[in-house]
Amino acid sequence: MPSPKDTKGPIVKTGPTAGQNRTRNKDGAWRAKRSDAGKIRPKQEKSN
């Protein structure tokens, strides 16, 4: 895994973009993980 020192920023630990650099928000702050990350999604009925 790359070092934050080498990549100039925090590394994403888990999720679909794991191992990449965190992105920044419009105001320049590092983007936080979604509040619903890691939560179990409710089962949805298929309508077909």
Describe the structure.
The chain has 48 residues and is low in regular secondary structure. It is 8% helix and 0% strand. The protein has 1 helix and no strands. It has one helix at residues 4-7. The chain is elongated. The mean pLDDT is 80.
How many H/I helices? 1
- H-E order: H
Number of E-state strands:
0
- SS class: little secondary structure
Rg value: 15 Å
What share of the residues does DSSP label as strand, in percent? under 5%
Low-confidence stretches: none
Mean pLDDT: 80
Largest sheet: none
- What is the straight-line distance between the termini? 43 Å
Form type: elongated
Please estimate the helix content.
under 10%
Throw out a few tags for this protein.
48 residues; 0% strand
Q: How would you sum up this structure in a few lines?
A:
This protein has 48 residues and is largely without helices or strands.
Break the fold down into its secondary structure elements and pairings.
Elements: H1 4-7
